[in-house]
């Protein structure tokens, strides 16, 4: 029972889903950003309130500017894509109207996004593969376990990369400090000999 509770608690932290409602002014653009791991299924459902003489466009892109989903005059619909790499993804709604902003009311936008285990339709999977309820739950726990292992592997990789970067930076700082000290010692030695020769030339010292 305790293992199941821990697994369920970790699933809340890792497999993220959210539903958000906001208002989009006319001739303005609003974007939502989220970091998602590699090879993760992302699904979403949106609904935009109708506005006369206004058209709302939906566009989903990654940090490189690649378009993953695009829809003009988006009023209601669904989207789905699988991430190819760990990246920052941006979901943008843009309202356009030739009439200008004026006093036009804002459009209400409802967005429901899921990714990871939460995005998979296990009910449909059960119908296709003719799985029993217990088998469906085991399949879900199996996918959840795989997701947790992948996330921990990714965090371990990031920790190794940060540790290597830290060690490399420390080594460079050490070498730079030694070089700076050698330069200062050399400069100080040169100043001593130069001043000694100068004072001898002026016969201030013997």
Could you describe the 3D structure shown?
A hairpin with a 5-residue loop joins strand 4 (55-61) and strand 5 (67-71). Helices cover 44% and strands 30% of the residues. It has helices spanning 2-14, 122-129, 133-201, and strands at 17-24, 29-36, 41-48, 55-61, 67-71, 76-82, 87-96, 107-115. The chain has a domain at 13-120: Jelly Rolls (Sandwich). It has a four-stranded antiparallel sheet, with no helix packed on it. With 206 residues, the protein is α+β, with helices and mostly antiparallel strands. The relative contact order is 0.16. Helix 1 (2-14) crosses helix 3 (133-201) and helix 2 (122-129) packs across helix 3 (133-201). It has three helices and eight strands. Mean pLDDT is 82; it is low at 1-15.
Fraction of helical residues: 40-55%
Which outline best applies? elongated
**Residue share in β-strands:** 25-35%
H/E series, N to C? HEEEEEEEEHH
Give me the count of strands: 8
State the distance separating the first and last CA atoms. 92 Å
Query: In what order do the strands lie side by side in the largest sheet?
Result: 1-8-3-6
Can you give the mean pLDDT? 82
Our Rg estimate from Cα atoms comes to 30 Å
Structural class of the secondary structure composition? alpha+beta
* CATH architecture field of one domain: Sandwich
Ranges where pLDDT stays below 50 over 5 or more residues in a row are: 1-15
């Amino acid at each position: 029972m305790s293992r199941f509770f821990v697994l369920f608690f970790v699933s809340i932290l890792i497999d993220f889903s959210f539903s958000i409602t906001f208002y989009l002014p006319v001739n303005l653009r609003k974007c939502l950003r989220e970091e998602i791991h590699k090879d993760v299924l992302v699904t979403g459902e949106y609904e935009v309130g109708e506005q006369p003489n206004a058209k709302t466009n939906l566009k989903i892109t990654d940090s490189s500017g690649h378009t993953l989903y695009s829809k003009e005059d988006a009023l209601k619909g669904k989207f789905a894509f699988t991430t190819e790499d760990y990246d920052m993804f941006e979901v943008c709604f843009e309202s356009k109207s030739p009439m200008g902003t004026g006093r036009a009311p804002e459009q209400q936008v409802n967005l429901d996004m899921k990714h990871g285990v939460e995005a998979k339709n296990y009910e449909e999977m059960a119908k296709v593969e003719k799985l029993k309820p217990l088998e469906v739950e085991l399949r879900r726990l199996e996918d959840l376990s795989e997701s947790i292992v992948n996330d921990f592997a990714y965090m371990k990789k990031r920790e190794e990369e940060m540790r290597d970067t830290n060690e490399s930076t420390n080594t460079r700082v050490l070498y730079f400090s030694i070089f700076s000290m050698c330069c200062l010692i050399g400069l100080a030695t040169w100043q001593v000999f130069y001043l000694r020769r100068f004072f001898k030339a002026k016969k201030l010292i013997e």
